[in-house]
Design a protein that fits this description.
8 helices, 0% strand, 169 residues, globular, mainly alpha, Serine Threonine Protein Phosphatase 5, Tetratricopeptide repeat
C-alpha cells in the first residue's frame, strides 16, 4: 500500500508541475492578444504631448522644403554613384525648390562646384564656391575634400581673396 501512495504522490507532483508551467505563460507582462502588440503601445514623437501646444504648420512650405531636401539627397546619391550630369540637375532643382538650411544651400553649391571643377570649367567652379560661401560664411571643405588637386586650390584662392577683401575694410 505504501508503494501505491508514492506512485499517486508522484502523479500529483507531475500534475502540479504541469499546472504551474501552463499558468506561468499567463503572467507575461506583454499582451499576446491580436492587435495589441507592444510596438503599438510605444508613443510616437509626432503625437501631441500633454501640456504642449502644437505649432501651426504651413503644409505648402513643408512640402516645398522637403522636396528641395529630397532633391539634395537624390543629388548626393547620384554624385556618389558617378552620375554627375543627373546630380547637377538634382542639385540645381534642390536650390530652385528651396532649401531652408543655409548649410544645405552651401552643400548643394559645393557639389555643383565639384562637378564644374572636374569638368574643367574653373570660372563656374569658382562661382559655385562663392555662392556656397554666400549661403554659409562658415562653409569649409571637409578634410578629404580640402586635399583634392582640382577644386581645393580654387577654393583656397577664393577663400584667401575673400579674407583679404575683408581685412581691407
Amino acid at each position: 500500500m505504501k508503494a501505491v501512495n508514492i506512485f499517486m504522490s508522484s502523479d500529483a507532483c507531475l500534475v502540479a508541475v504541469a499546472f504551474v508551467l501552463t499558468c506561468s505563460g499567463c503572467a507575461s507582462p506583454t499582451s499576446k492578444e491580436p492587435g495589441n502588440s507592444p510596438k503599438q503601445e510605444i508613443r510616437s514623437n509626432h503625437e501631441p504631448q500633454p501640456g504642449r501646444v502644437k505649432e501651426a504648420r504651413d503644409p505648402l512650405k513643408e512640402r516645398i522644403a522637403s522636396k528641395g531636401e529630397h532633391e539634395l539627397q537624390k543629388g548626393i546619391k547620384s554624385y556618389e554613384e558617378g552620375a554627375y550630369k543627373s546630380a547637377a540637375k538634382q542639385f540645381q532643382a534642390a536650390l530652385d525648390l528651396g532649401l531652408d538650411a543655409r548649410g544645405d544651400q552651401a552643400k548643394a553649391h559645393k557639389y555643383l562646384a565639384f562637378i564644374t571643377c572636374a569638368s574643367g570649367r574653373e570660372k563656374a567652379c569658382r562661382e559655385e564656391f562663392r555662392k556656397a560661401l554666400d549661403a554659409d560664411p562658415t562653409f569649409e571643405l571637409e578634410p578629404a575634400e580640402a586635399g583634392h588637386p582640382i577644386w581645393a586650390p580654387i577654393f583656397r584662392r577664393l577663400n584667401a581673396d575673400a579674407a583679404s577683401k575683408e581685412n581691407r575694410k
